[in-house]
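Re-run with default settings, no changes from the original entry. Doing this only to confirm the output is reproducible before filing.
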Amino acid sequence: MANITQKITPFLWFDKEAGEAADFYTSVFKDSSINNKSYYGDNSPLPKGTVLTVGFTLNGQNFTALNGGPLFKFNESVSFVVNCNGQDEVDYYWNNLLKDGGKESQCGWLKDKFGLSWQVVPVRMIELLTDKDAAKRNRVMNAMMKMVKIDLPTLEKAAES
């Protein structure tokens, strides 16, 4: 019997890149692993022996990637937030998730080379955006709206202006 310990698992549909994507994500996130793989058999939509699913874990969060063919594509209506402790962590995840063909967006959003959307966010930004001082929140929001990658020192400066 499978050892399933997580009630809800994100399930990511890829054309035929599920294995490559799982390898990529586990290389970016520390404390990550490939947990299992299943393969297509006879009379399948993809050649026998092609990866069907890959179970993997990123920082304690389980995911499953499926090679389901070209029917569905990722879009920005679903994204994953990477909560970062400081600018160094923002820079690390931003740069690594963009590797080999990712695309920057705005306000800390990006798409990786597979088209999956990520939000790379310093926890401190959330604190500033939820501060009890409305004027401070507005200054931080205005500064953030002009950014592509989040620049925490600039947000801190806006908060204190």
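The chain has two domains: 1-72, 74-161. The CA atoms of residues 80 and 118 lie 5 Å apart.
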